[in-house]
Amino acid sequence: MINRSMVRTRVVQTLFAYYKDNDKTVVSARKELLKSFADTYDLYFLLLDFANELTAYAQKQLEEQIARARATHADWTPNRRFVQNRLAQQLFDNRALRARVAEQRLSWDSGMPAVSDIYRRLTESEQYRNYMEADTCSYEDDKRIWRYIYQNLLPGNEALTEALDEMELVLDKANWVTDADIVLSYVVKTIKRFTIESTPETPLLEMFDHEDEVVFATTLLEKALEGHAQYEQLIDSHLKGWEADRIAYMDRIILEVALAEIIEFPDIAITVSLNEYIELAKEYSGDKNYMFINGILTEIMRDLKIFKAETIK
């Protein structure tokens, strides 16, 4: 699930916090980095479990409607299609999901306003009406309505953002708000993998796309810390008219991590590293700062390519 792009982002964030807090140690920085990955993985399980929370909320609304109909002696047959959705039941029964939710005490208790808001938006949608009113309902129809929910109703939802922000504090997590959209894409990917034959043992996504990603992450962090003085000097020597103290703090961190990767990981193509950190700069630096970072890295690379070639010889 967690790929190298997210690893690079986490290393930059960890170093940013490390240099801002003089009390941090290399050991504590490494622990924070690993915790950040676990927090993102917990968000994946929390969002998967949203299917259970929304279904439970829908069941409660249905029971209230049934009670009102009985009280008024109305002749009304409840439509249980959504609350009996087969995919939602599979997710509820999934042992890996239930175990992680219980182990990490993940709960939507403080996020019920988001559940209520999204249920309202769902029941007002054309997709929901078509799903509920269709003459037949296949397993693919059950999956389709949940893909719609996760792809269209959760991303950018203000109530969900507020809920995740509050749950971060309650559960001592980090990056849930910023990670929400990318993790939602992983939830959709998981849904696509389910079939009507899926059992409670059906595997979910692993924390890392590849086993060596966690080694890459910790090594990149350590190399960036070890080479801090060298990278600072290298950056300052290529400023060409810029004053060192005028560089945005985040820009300097991005440059240092990029240099650590380029110098210490010769198996990674330089163009791949450059593109990754330029994209990261676009997201975390000020307007057009990525152009400055691109320029500095390009200038440094002209020297580093020579250095690498001489080292190999």
List keywords for this structure.
313 residues, single chain, 72% helix, mainly alpha, elongated, 15 helices, disordered C terminus
What does this structure look like?
With 313 residues, the chain is mainly alpha-helical. It has 15 helices and no strands. The two termini are 38 Å apart. The C terminus is likely disordered.
Report on the biggest sheet.
Answer: none
For the termini, the CA-CA separation is: 38 Å
Rg over CA atoms, rounded to whole Å, is 24 Å
Helix content: over 70%
Would you tell me the structural class of the helices and strands? mainly alpha
Q: How would you state the average pLDDT, rounded?
A: 91
Strand content: under 5%
- Spell the H/E element sequence: HHHHHHHHHHHHHHH
Low-pLDDT residue spans: 309-313
The coarse silhouette is: elongated
- By DSSP (H or I, 4+ residues per run), the number of helices equals 15
Instruction: Give the total of beta strands.
Output: 0
